[in-house]
Amino acid sequence: MNVRRSAAVLAAVGVLAAAAPAMAAGPSPSVKAAIPSGLYGTSDPTYDGVWRQSLTLIAQRTLGYEPAAKAVDWLAGQQCTNGAFAAFRADPAKACDSKVMVDTNSTAAAVQALKATGGHDDAVGKAVTWLKSVQNKDGGWAYYPGKASDTNSTSVVVGALTATGADPAKVTKEGKSPYDLLAAMSLPCDQDGGGALAYQPDKKGKPAANADATAAGVLGALGKGFVARAGKAPADAACAKAAHPTAAQVADNAGAYLAAAVGKTGHLQSTLAGAKPQPDYGNTADTVVALAADGRTEPAKKAYDWLEKNAGPWAKQSGPAAYAQLILAAHAIGAQPGDFGGTSLVRSLNELGPAPRMDSAGHETGKAEKSDGGSKFGLWWFVGVCLVAGIGIGFLFSGRKKRRP
Predict the structure, then answer these.
(1) Which superkingdom heads the taxonomic lineage of this protein's source (predicted)?
(2) Are the beta carbons of 13 and 405 closer than 8 angstroms?
(3) With contact defined as beta carbons under 8 Å apart, do 36 and 90 qualify?
(4) Sorting pLDDT into bands at 50, 70 and 90, what band is 380?
(5) What values do phi and psi take at 248, rounded to 5?
């Protein structure tokens, strides 16, 4: 996940541009929304405010922190009366109307965050009800309601359903569940990119392998969300043929594809059209979570080791969602987020917004690292028991702001 699934981001931006051409061609890029005091990060939140806040709160809870009340309140205050969330609402006191572009990704991420922080059951319930109301007849979800289903959006909604205790297999539309959509997006083993998932079929109806969607799809097929730990090793190391793959088989085949993709270099490459291939830090972090959840710990650790050596500058530039993504990758393999190549991911994230406080209730904490996060020796708060019931599609999204209309 690029700090958000790049395919979903581009699709969303395309919809925004089509819906509001004046905005796409309009205000100067220098015009930015004001940063609310409860929101993490200093970059323009127009396209990722709810997303980055949600990932931040989830990462903090996973580490054993109680997020600041003003940070949680800001997120809860972004909700529309129908239960949905948009990417960002500069004036949450103003009622949502048809001009407010609510979407499934922001809504599903907020569900997982508010469920993790607790105390917002009504908001969570309304959001889930809205998500169910916009499910497509193929069992999946689109970024924006009414559009074609995609792997990334379907997977993040699966994470929201699981976080609230719902069984995704029982959330259906015309007899189809999200697992049916994910299976339909899975490429047969004997095709190019076999085992991978497509984001969406192309205009001719042909699916193509997409590593971003594949990482999301692994977690979606496993019924997990942003937070995941090492699972049971798959029955087959390679892609296993199946005429009608089960959700578990979809996940295992996708895991085999990802393991091969990071096998040589330890990382994924970006594939944005027209751009020179570059290391894809965000999707590599998502892949760590996906591989760990699928029980492929060795390739997951290899990818994490590469991130630890190379991803620090990217995270510093990208902001809170990137730090949260790396924390969730560390959590997935049992690594130390307080010592990430000599930098504390924990401190770096917490300094970008209202300070959380350590809450030992319901968490296991330990001491092993220096408080400044710069040494392997000293004190650190070890990753605790994850309160979020599965959120792993590892899909973060600080990079979206660079692809705005």
Answers:
(1) Bacteria
(2) yes
(3) no
(4) very low
(5) -65, -40
Q: How far apart are CA 158 and CA 166, in angstroms?
A: 9
- Cβ–Cβ < 8 Å for 172, 235: no
Q: 347: buried, middle or exposed (CB in 10 Å: 19+, 13-18, 0-12)?
A: middle
What is the rounded CA–CA span in Å between residue 54 and residue 56?
A: 5
pLDDT at 52: 98
Mean pLDDT for the chain overall:
85
Q: What is the tens place of the pLDDT at every residue in 281-319?
A: 999 999 999 999 999 999 999 999 999 999 999 999 999
Q: How many domains in the chain?
A: 1
CATH number of the domain within which 316 lies? 1.50.10
Give pLDDT, residue 235: 82
Residue 380 within a domain: yes
Are the beta carbons of 234 and 296 closer than 8 angstroms? yes
For 160-218, the pLDDT digits (tens) are 999 999 999 999 999 999 999 999 999 999 999 999 999 999 888 889 999 999 999 99
- What angle in degrees, to the nearest 10, is found between the helix axes of 247-261 and 281-293? 130
Which residues, 6+ apart, have CB-to-CB distance to 253 below 8 Å? 186, 189, 194, 195, 239, 240, 245
Scan for tokens 């710069």, then name that residue.
374
What residue type is 130 in one-letter code? W
In a domain, 259, yes or no: yes
* Helix 69-77 / helix 104-117 crossing angle, nearest 10 deg: 150
Tokens found for residue 139: 């069992």
For 94, other C-beta atoms within 10 Å of its C-beta total 9
For residue 34, give its domain range: 6-403
Q: How far is CA 247 from the centre of its chain?
A: 19
Tokens standing for 243? 């005429």
Both tokens of residue 239? 């892609």
The reply to whether 57 falls in a domain is: yes
